[in-house]
């Protein structure tokens, strides 16, 4: 069990692959790797075949890099972000806090970009949209009228085919009527 | 007379002495046996003998040791299993 020996920790809350980083002091050695960096009893370690070249008391990053070379990954733990503990307010203090929240002037925009006051809302609207808004229903009526005109044009395009079929029968009748008149 | 559900072997009869001096029969369910190791059959430490309704109320960390194979294998067998990995 020398420095650099790759072992498996077989006892304790954290078990995994680790590397010995110090010489044994009685029965305790310093280990690091997939387990916590701490002194561990030699009886709780099971030596594996691999051995790494590491300096005595090497830091965690060096151990991780060395283990990566033999395809052993070490998961890095991230600390939880703990926010401020909410303080429960009662009685007069609670009423004061609520009054302060309601009376505080709302500057700029509030939820989802909505302006706080009517003036701010009017100022944020562009000029073109204002005109459209002022016209109101007229714009909607115009759009409908456009659609209606398009539909009429489509119908009229279909109708000439029908009128062309009717015209030859009507055409001889018209000159006959004119001849009768002259006579 | 006990109810039909209480007449099964799942319930045990206990005699309870009331403050007035009379004795009553109470029907309580049997508690489960102590958990044993899956490999060697040794009794497991750190695993409470509790009814399912009680286990719901107990914290998860208090139901088994915080160790690999905790609550399934004894400490000796778990070490052997980790060596074999």
Structure description:
In chain A, 46% of the residues lie in helices and 14% in strands. With 183 residues, chain A is α+β, with helices and mostly antiparallel strands. In chain A, strands 4-3-2-1-5 form a five-stranded antiparallel sheet. Chain A is elongated and about 100 Å long. Chain A starts with a strand and ends with a helix. The model of chain A is unreliable at 166-174 (pLDDT under 50). In chain B, strands 1-2 form a two-stranded antiparallel ribbon. By secondary structure, chain B is of the alpha+beta class. The radius of gyration of chain B is 19 Å and the shape is elongated. Chain B has two domains: 1-30, no CATH class; 32-85, no CATH class. The chains are: A alpha+beta (183), B alpha+beta (85). Chain A binds chain B through residues 8, 10-13, 15, 46, and chain B through 66-68, 75, 79, 82-83, 85.
What topology does this entry show?
The complex is a heterodimer of chains A (183) and B (85).
Chain A: E1 5-9, E2 17-20, E3 28-33, E4 38-41, E5 45-51, H1 60-69, H2 92-103, H3 118-124, H4 127-135, H5 137-182
Antiparallel strand pairs in A: 1-2, 1-5, 2-3, 3-4
Chain B: E1 11-17, E2 23-29, H1 52-57, H2 75-84
Antiparallel strand pairs in B: 1-2
Keywords:
heterodimer; A: 183 residues; alpha+beta; SH3 type barrels; five-stranded antiparallel beta sheet; 5 helices; 5 strands; 46% helix
Biggest interface between protein chains, with counts per chain?
A: A-B, 7 and 8 residues
Report the top-level CATH class of the domain at 5-69 in chain A: Mainly Beta
Q: What's the pLDDT, averaged over the residues of chain B?
A: 93
Please report the total strand number of chain B as a whole number.
Answer: 2
Q: Spans of chain A with pLDDT under 50 lasting ≥5 residues?
A: 166-174
Strand-pairing-aware structural class of chain B: alpha+beta
Q: Over all CA atoms, what is the radius of gyration of chain A?
A: 45 Å
Instruction: Note the main sheet of chain A.
Output: 5 strands, antiparallel
Shape of chain B: elongated
